[in-house]
Structure formats: structure tokens, C-alpha cells
Design goal:
This protein is an alpha/beta fold. It has one domain: Ribose 5-phosphate Isomerase B, Chain: A. The protein is built from six helices and five strands. The chain has helices at 10-22, 44-56, 71-78, 91-99, 115-126, 136-147, and strands at residues 2-5, 30-31, 63-67, 85-87, 105-109. Helix 1 links the parallel strand 1 and strand 2. It is globular, with a radius of gyration of 14 Å. It starts with a strand and ends with a helix. The relative contact order is 0.18. Its EC number is 5.3.1.6. Keywords: Isomerase. InterPro entries: Rib-5-P_Isoase_Actino, RpiB_LacA_LacB, RpiB_LacA_LacB_sf, SPI_LacAB/RpiB.
Length: 149
């Protein structure tokens, strides 16, 4: 599991990182930054692309990314072929992001989602697994075929 943020999502990233490290379903967690020592070191795009490339290359299976709105990190991660990232604000969207769309990246906005809700949604998201035998597989394949994956 990867976790990352820019300066606008740093506080939530730190809390989510701690939660994930305590979750028995998570075998390993990697902090992709930014760090407290250098909050301005990277943009949301750099962090999100690094996370998405790690998933694409098989070095991780999922990531949670945080910026001010969650939109920027979702857009940046989605630029990496084979990656499906979404910003979510509610339980149903979190559920469907995995069960209907096989999303590997969940994003939040520190400026738009309360901390306790983000923590709850991250925990819920970890409990979902995409079923390749579901009717949604064909829909995900359309996206993958377009990308050439």
C-alpha cells in the first residue's frame, strides 16, 4: 500500500498512514511524501504519478493519495496507463470504485472531506476486492483496451 500527498494533503496523509500501519489487512505501507521537513518538495502530480507507476509496475497494489481536493492527484494518477483512480466523498462511491471499476487508487481532498470521514472511507475501501467474474469486468476491459493495456 502506498500513501502520498502534497502540502495541501499532508496532515491527512500522516493520519491515514498511521491507520494503515495499524490495519492487519495491510502487509506493508510506503510513505511517498511529502515530508514534514520539506512540505513544498513536490507537487501533487509528482507524488501521484510516482504512486501510479509503482502500481503499474507491480511494486504495489493500491494507493491512497491526498491533496487539497483529491481531484489533482486523481487526474495525475489516471494519466498513467492501466491506472484507475478516483476521488470519493461517500461510502457508496468508495464501494463502487472497487466493485464496479477496479480502482487501485483512492484520493481525498483535505479541504473538502472531514478527517474522520476520510479515515472511515479508507478503511472501507480496503475491504473491497474486484471480482473479475462480475459483469463489471467487461466494462473495465473496455477502458484497458483503449489504453492498450
Amino acid at each position: 500500500m502506498l500513501v502520498g500527498s502534497d502540502v495541501a494533503g499532508f496532515d491527512y496523509k500522516e493520519v491515514l498512514l498511521a491507520d494503515l500501519r495499524e490495519d492487519p489487512r495491510v502487509s506493508a505501507v510506503e510513505d511517498l511524501g511529502v515530508t514534514a521537513e520539506d512540505l513544498e518538495s513536490e507537487s501533487y502530480g509528482e507524488v501521484a504519478i510516482r504512486a501510479a507507476e509503482a502500481i503499474r509496475d507491480g511494486r504495489a497494489d493500491r494507493a491512497i493519495l491526498v491533496c487539497g481536493t483529491g481531484i489533482g492527484v486523481a487526474i495525475a494518477a489516471n494519466k498513467v496507463s492501466g491506472i484507475r483512480a478516483t476521488v470519493a466523498h461517500d461510502s457508496f462511491s468508495v464501494e463502487r470504485s472497487v466493485l464496479s471499476n477496479d480502482c487501485q487508487v483512492l484520493t481525498f481532498g483535505q479541504r473538502v472531506v472531514g478527517l474522520q470521514l476520510a479515515r472511515r472511507l479508507a478503511k472501507e475501501w480496503l475491504g473491497y476486492e474486484f471480482d473479475p467474474a462480475s459483469p463489471s469486468q467487461e466494462k473495465v476491459e473496455v477502458i484497458s483496451a483503449y489504453e492498450g493495456c
